[in-house]
Amino acid sequence: MRRLIPLVLLTALLTNHLLAGADESAAPPCGNPEGICSVENGIYRLRLPDSVGAAPVPAVIYLHGWGGNSLAVMRGANRVSDATVARGYALIVPEGVPKPGREQRDWAVRDMLSNHPRDDIAFLASVLDDAAARGIDRSRVLLAGFSRGGSMVWDVACRAPGLAHAYAPVAGAFWEPLPDDCNGPVNLFHTHGWTDRVVPLEGRSVADGRLIQGDAFASLAIMRDMTGCDARMPDTTPMEADGGIWWRHWTSCPGGRLDLMLHPGGHALPDGWIDQALTWFELLE
């Protein structure tokens, strides 16, 4: 039995290595869902819809959560891949970068440490530029992300609002210190689980107090100010009996619109989220 332990550990390490996309030489070419597309300072994966023609196609760029990777998303993690291309969108999944001495991939979220090894806003801009050369409509991009990836979406929306046409973070908001202001108005659709204990709506302290997740409602307040929403109160607050979804819509803001979807679940994407996000995105066009 003892001789089996090193073999099990070796198998686990090799599996993690491959899932993280480290073996670029053995990967299929860019454009294959499991292929690697290389840009300066990183890689991403690209899946095009079956109905690609001569015209550029709209795209969802999706940021995985902390410890995740792009290959897992392409293989069905969070149920995003198939549903996105079924709607006629390309799916772009960038790869986070591990911090020194760690394997888990992360994003350069603005937080209390801020010792990140890569400028992820610059990286995402290069990803989108490269994808545009491969048939993506650069003007019709929805930047979405989950958990720590969702927080990165908030940071991009605040610091580089023109990077995408709209933003759809899930289960992740600003981290403290919260920004004093942002660089412009946005269209943003935030989704959060009412019972989320990993990233609660109000945030929490992690890493022995070295990091503090921000309050999602405080994050929305900052974005309301930058988008020109004069009223704190949303324009409409419908509730869906089927599924228990609670909505808050700020639709009369001169600079854009903000929408909050609360679902009864925890730290996860609710069923059908990508279709709801894309339906919302199409309302903006």
* Morphology call: globular
The figure for the number of domains is 1
- Order the strands across the largest sheet as they lie in space: 1-2-4-3-7-8-9-14-13-12
Order of helices and strands: HEEEHHEEEHEHEEEEHEEEH
Can you count the beta strands? 14
Query: What's the CATH class, please?
Result: Alpha Beta
Pfam family, one: DLH
Keywords: Carbohydrate metabolism, Hydrolase, Polysaccharide degradation, Secreted, Signal, Xylan degradation
Domain Dienelactone hydrolase: 52-200
Protein name: Dienelactone hydrolase family protein
Could you explain how this protein is built, in words?
InterPro entries: AB_hydrolase_fold, Dienelactn_hydro, FaeB/C/D. Involved in degradation of plant cell walls. Hydrolyzes the feruloyl-arabinose ester bond in arabinoxylans, and the feruloyl-galactose ester bond in pectin. Active against paranitrophenyl-acetate, methyl ferulate and wheat arabinoxylan. It contains seven helices and 14 strands. It is α/β, with parallel strands linked by helices. It has a single domain, classed as Alpha/Beta hydrolase fold, catalytic domain (Rossmann fold, 3-Layer(aba) Sandwich), CATH 3.40.50. β12 (239-240) and β13 (245-250) form a beta hairpin. The longest helix has 16 residues, at 4-19.
